[in-house]
Amino acid sequence: MKLFGSSGIRGLANVDVTPELLLDLGRTVGTEYREVVVGRDPRISGPMLAAAFQSGVLSVGGSVCDAGLVSTPTLARGASGYGCGAVITASHNPGEYNGIKLWNPDGMAFTEEQQAAIEERLAARDWTPAAWQETGRATTRGDHVERHLESILRAEGSAELRVVVDCACGATGNVTPYVLREMGCRVTALNAQMDGHFPGRDPEPTEENLTALTRAVQALEADLGIAHDGDGDRMVAVDAKGAFVGGDRLLAIFARERARKGLVVPVDASMAFEDMLPGVPVYRTRVGDVFVAQEIKRRGADFGGEPSGTFIFPDETMCPDGPLAAALLVGLVKETPLKQLVDAAPAYPVVRGSLPFEPARKATLLASVGETMAALAHDVMTLDGWRLSFGDGWALVRFSGTEPRIRVTAEARTVARAKELYDNVYAAVKGVVA
Ligand code: MG
Predict the structure, then answer these.
(1) C-alpha 124 to ligand 1 mean position (Å)
(2) Which residues are known to be catalytic?
(3) Which domains are delineated in the chain?
(4) Each residue of 235-247: pLDDT tens digit?
(5) Most buried of 208, 275, 369, 413, CB within 10 angstroms?
(6) In the predicted structure, residue 22 carries a pLDDT above the cut 60
(7) CA of 19 to the centre of ligand 1 (A)
(8) Which residues contact 295 (CB under 8 A, 6 or more apart)?
(9) What is the whole-number distance in angstroms between the Cα of residue 381 and the centre of ligand 1?
(10) Rounded to an integer, what distance in angstroms lies between the CA atom of residue 40 and that of residue 49?
(11) 172: which DSSP letter?
(12) In terms of Cα–Cα distance, which of 349, 347, 368 is closest to 357?
């Protein structure tokens, strides 16, 4: 079974993601990268898994720097100067999950090739225990958060807004509220106490999970609300009226502001980008922030991101940095109310849904869904699933990477046409799966 997904390894803590696995992974990563900086989000299983991973690195003679409780972008930026960085986190998954994601010194997530090389070495148990006097050196370092704050403050100036920040009791509690306060904002922080039980809300920053933030923004008459996922690589917002502004809308706002040489978005992002940015090349990738980062590098693009709420500003770092995105958004809202920014970025109607499939039939279904999709449109992009272009709209069919479901998305310039495309494609997929 493939261990790594596009976001590293993730699963149920102490069931799928065990100390034994992390120990072996530490041996593997230590052999390959030698000096590893390790951080974790506040999940209850974090100390157990971090200790196992660190032990593995040390046992093959690698060195470990413990960065403690940090957000994913804090750690990814902190990987500079080390062989690599590792963060023990399950991102936006509920508390019972955990995992690990690995980072290059330039802040870019490990590529598929790097992850495959690790898997290969892990499977072959290809490492050599160090002699006792050559087991690695363990240090701790407490200034990663401070350095993250400083880099964000260098990137964005002052703003005197009233802002409510919801950190989900995750790892951004020691970053975003402080950054925005330093900028001059009046900050009210919700769920900023780190707590691996996630008592405040589910760590996924969806509209349904952000009712407390919405109410707080309204009650305090704030200019805007900011929310992160559990580990802080994602950011979404709420406008002054309390309306949810999702990652797709923020992606459009940042793209309009930042993309000049090139924009990178995944296949599930809107066709509004091509319409909105005449003269700016729009490059599409597979779904996953690492694919966006790789394409930004390859094309020399100046911005990229995903509708899920990850944004990459390559002048600052190659990792999706939620607190940085929050600061940059505050910088924009200082000039123009968020609602106005949202209204100015074009958006087309999107219809989304999914249907379950029998996991055992996946290989057969992949082939037959592919055949069916190829027959539905002339122009089919197979970068990630099947993206069917119809001139006035598109539809995407993808097998989920995290659960046994096939996701169907359709977008067009009118609701009726988006619905029609969705219904046609959904029916075709259903015909194959049934
Ligand atoms: Mg995340």
Answers:
(1) 30
(2) 91
(3) 9-142 (3.40.120.10), 146-344 (3.40.120.10), 351-433 (3.30.310.50)
(4) 999 999 999 999 9
(5) 369
(6) yes
(7) 22
(8) 264, 283, 285, 301, 304
(9) 27
(10) 9
(11) G
(12) 368
